[in-house]
Structure formats: C-alpha cells, structure tokens
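Design review, sub-item: ligand-bound model
Attendees: FS, YL, KQ
YL presented the inputs for the uracil complex:
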Amino acid sequence: NNILNVLSRKRDKEILSREDIIFFVKSVKEGIVDDSQIAAFLMACFINGLDNEETLHLTQALANSGNVLSWGKAMSVDKHSTGGVGDKTTIALLPVLSAYGFLVPKMAGRRLSYTGGTIEKIELIPGYNTKLSISDFVKQVERIGIGLISQTEEIAPVEGTFYKIRNHTGTVESSQLILSSIASKKLAVGSNFIIFDIKSGSGSLFSSYTASLEFAKNICNVMKKFNKKVSYIVSDMNQPLGKCVGNRLELWEALSFLHTREPYSLDKLIFNIFSNSYKAYFGIAPEKEINKIYNKIFEEGRTVQKAIEWIKNQGGDPKYVENPDYLLNGLNKVEILSSESGYIQGMDVRRIGWIGHYLSDRVDGGIVFNILIGDKVEKGDVLANIYARDINKLENIDLASCIDIKESICKKRELILDSKIL
Ligand code: URA
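KQ shared the predicted structure:
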C-alpha cells in the first residue's frame, strides 16, 4: 500500500477499504503525506463521493488520530450545530444541562464564513481561557461537570489538517466530508449522548428541509454505529436565532438567558435539547414533567450559579455572568427604522451574518432585532438597533435592506421543524 496507489484508486472511483483509509490518515499524522496529496485525496472524495462504509472508516480514522476521551458511565451530553446566524446556544445551554447534573465537555469552533463562532464570543469575557490542555480540561469537567475549550491539536488533529486544506481547495461542501469532520470530533470528545442541531434555510449550510433532514439522519446513523445515543433537531435558519447578532451582543443574550429565559426562541431550542437529553438517559417521560424540572433549575438560580462556577474555573471574570449588562458598557446605539408599513416577509440571513461579523470586528458591536418574520410593522417603527463603540465608524451598513416588508400578511415561522431521538 502506498499513498499514490490510494490516490489513484480513489481518482478512478474505486471504493477504498478500511485499511486504505486508516493507512492514509495515519500517514498524514506521521507527516509523510504532503499537502498536495492531501488536497488530491480530498478533491477525489469530493468529486467521487464516499459510500457509507468509507464515511464510517474515515470518521473513525480521524477520531483516532489524537486523544479519544471517555467519561465512563456519566450522563455526558454534547451538542453540535451546523452553524447559523445568531446561534449562541452553546453558551446558554451548557450551564442549564450542567445545573441538572449532565456532564458537558464541549470543544467548540471559531467563526466559519458568515456564521459566528462560540469561541470568539466566550473569549470576550476577560480572562477566560479557551486553551486548556486536554488533561486540565478533563480534570475540570470531572470536578465541576462543565468545560468549554477551542479546538486543539490533541483532539482529531488530522481532521484539523483536512479542514484547513478543504477551506482553500473548494472541498468544504461535501456532505460526507462534513459528516466525517463533525462526527470524528464528537467521537473524540467522547460524550455518550450527542444531539445534532441541523439548521435549515437560507442562512445555513443546507438550504432545504429535505437536505437537512437527510444529513441529520445520516450523521445519527454513523454515531449509532459507534454505540452512541443520538438525537437530532432540524431548526429553522431563515431568520437569526434570538434577537442578537454579533459576538458581544450574542454573549450578552446567552448570559442574560440564564437569568431571564428570554428570548423565547432560544428557550424553546434549549428546552428541546434538555428534554432530549433527559429522555436519552431516563427514558421517555411526559413533556410536562420535564418542563417542571427545567423550570425548577431556573427558579432556583442554578443556571446562574453553575455558569459562575464554570467561568471562574476557566479564569474568566464572573461579574459578567452575575450582570451581563456590563458587556454593553461603552456601546452606543443607532436605531434602524422601517420606511414602510406591512408584514415582515423574510430576511437576508447571510448578509445579516456578514454585517454581524463586520460589527464584531470593527466596532465591537452588533445588532438587536425587534422583529421576527410575520410581525406587523408601521412606518417609523424601530426594526433593530445597531450597537457600536464608535458610531462614526458605521459606514455603509444597510441593515434595513436585509429585511423584506410587504403589505400581505405573512405566517410566523416555526423554529423547530423536526426533532427525534434515534
Ligand atoms: N463544521 C465542521 O466541523 N466541519 C465541516 O466540515 C463543516 C462544518
């Protein structure tokens, strides 16, 4: 077996064996495959596709290219979202799950094109360390039940190499490569229950419901082959999640949620994840019963307490959890007014995502929306507020044109389109 032989066979549409794939990934790990050969491999996979067995073997080989963590019999939970605009779920979710007693070891990513990354958000808490060593991360999670770090070389390192090369060889948008990329990292982080939040709509990787559902089922089936408990959600990404877009505002929204359970959409999503995690470990129970437990966690202030413990343990200043409004100090506000009356028909979520990125980067700010699709607005109503440290630097931002308003009534959108435990 040699590299050239594997490459030529994949080029010629042969199905690679488990040994072929393990050999290739191992060789990348050892540094004996050069970047041009990795690029050729990825392009051949992209063009010719991978069948189910190949995808499974690639997932396993990538997971095994670094440390594979294990949490024994603990009720460990991991959540993965395929990314969207305004998706701050992870930061709000972890303390909720952990407050109930689930173990939540989480490795999160940075920004991918127009979608914001969890790491950029959490790093806005002064002192917070996203770069714990794996051994410190494991110790922390075992001690307090919660930890959030950025991607590290110690977990699925070859996936990291592939990802970098995919990003500049036009080989990101292959559903099998995406699947093996996500699934290998989830396997390596080692939780027993994994929930996939597959976004669907104009602001996501998959624009149609059918494509999102198919991906959700495929990735769950792969994880089940590795004896994981799994569940999926298909959730709407035709408008941002929650009210805020932009790292600082999203962090504010996620931490405020722990006190207020607002906004409604974030609460709905987090309850769904909580409920699926509960059912995965305790069996099917009436939604009403789970809702009681969920309410109690908030009422007793345990979400906030847990978040304080978590942030302190990772070196961050807990005053931002106690009072998230500190995050908004020094920001100025500009109102975005509606120039017409009517109903919100839709939003250009990708452009909103890019504006959020620009505002985060340039003026340390973001957007707070007052409207959702289906809402009625009058001319002159405030559609959204833009926040910035220096409002004089807000050149050429046309947020209003991202919001489509027409006279005809438009239905409100459901957030959760489907959700199942498999
Ligand atoms: N997220 C990942 O982790 N990998 C991909 O390939 C795409 C999205």
